[in-house]
Amino acid sequence: xxxxxxxxxxxxxxxxxxxxxxxxxxxxxxxxTRLEGEPWATCRYPDPDKPLPGTQGRLF
Length: 60
Fold this sequence. Notes:
Layout: E1 2-6, E2 9-16, H1 24-31, E3 41-43, E4 46-47, E5 50-51, E6 56-59
Antiparallel strand pairs: 1-2, 2-6, 3-6, 4-5
C-alpha cells in the first residue's frame, strides 16, 4: 500500500490477487478514500515493464 498526492488528489495503490478487487471498496472506505467518479486503472509496480508475479495494482 502506498499513498501520495498527485494533481491535488489523494490516490491509493492496492495490490491484490483478486481480479475483481471485491474488497478494494471496503479498504478505501476504511481509509476515507473516495471512489465515486474515480476510474479504475491497471497499474504495475515497481517496474512498469515488469509487474509483480500474480499481482495487479489498482489505482483509484
